[in-house]
Specification:
The protein has eleven helices and ten strands. The protein is α/β, with parallel strands linked by helices. It folds into two domains: 2-117, Arc Repressor Mutant, subunit A, CATH 1.10.10; 131-302, Rossmann fold. The strands form two sheets. Strands 6-5-4-7-8-10-9 form a seven-stranded mixed β-sheet, sandwiched between helices. The mean pLDDT is 93. The structure holds S-adenosylmethionine.
Amino acid sequence: MNQLSDCLRLLADDNRLRILHLLEHEPLTVAELQDILQLSQSSVSSHLGKLKRAGFLYDVAEGSAHRYRLREDIGEPARACWLAVRQLSGSNPAIADDRRRLAELRSATRASWVERVAGHLHREYAPGRTWEALGHAFLAALDLGDCLDVGAGDGAMMELLLGSCRSLTCVDPAAAMVAAGKRRIAEGKLQGAEFIQASAEDMQLAPQRFDSVLFLQSLQYIADPQAALARALELLRPKGRLICLTLSSHDYPEAERYGHRHPGFQRQQLLDWVQGRGQARCLTLAPEAKPPRFTPLLLTVTC
Ligand SMILES: C[S@@+](CC[C@H](N)C(=O)[O-])C[C@H]1O[C@@H](n2cnc3c(N)ncnc32)[C@H](O)[C@@H]1O
């Protein structure tokens, strides 16, 4: 009986009811609730505290703010009280006004974010705009034809690449990597992929067999990277493409932990190695965000 009367007393307050109706619509911070309800911060916080202690809400930290959400598992009798009061108060004009102000707040936030990031959107976080997602999007538009992946490791990229290839030949000298790659093919029932154990400098494959050759962060592992690039170019058909992602030269000892043989490469060094073999470009890409901030290099050659 005590619990029931406590609950009814808690819900017999217009502002707390307005808060519950708003949070049922979407999770909100104290500042957002203040804006919509036109109440002081202490008043909003006090109402939220009471509702939280009674088990109606929970909050999640978001930077320096907290976002409040209605619990899906409100216990009894609180749930039954809320459902009854919600129905009785749903047509109250104050509730509709709050919803309208929430919509206005959202539209102002959207507009101000768009205006704020104009000109430096590339540096800003935008939900879902991950490099992996962009990679998938660009690969969907790419035709790699018969593709050779040199230093393919255990084939972690295989499933991503297969959607854009007619066939995929993965080469790696490490027996453990090749065994893991073959398991990946068998377990995923991947069609059109094969693994070959070989070194890049010594790939026993027919010349001009491939439309594309990839080196995805493998060049820095290869004992003779110049010979590996030369061999790869011999395996390309006319108009074929070599795409090599590696690292820019650095002096970070951390690279040894990953088994690198070379501390990255100079842009010009890579261009010199492939000179006369087609149209070559080498781009220095943005450094990693994480220290020591390795910087990727992208070499492309079109035969
Ligand atoms: C960081 S892993 C890259 C794996 C893969 N490309 C990826 O992006 O997930 C580097 C790979 O290069 C391979 N590697 C080392 N020496 C090589 C060589 N001479 N020829 C080809 N690959 C080599 C290693 O065995 C290792 O699997």
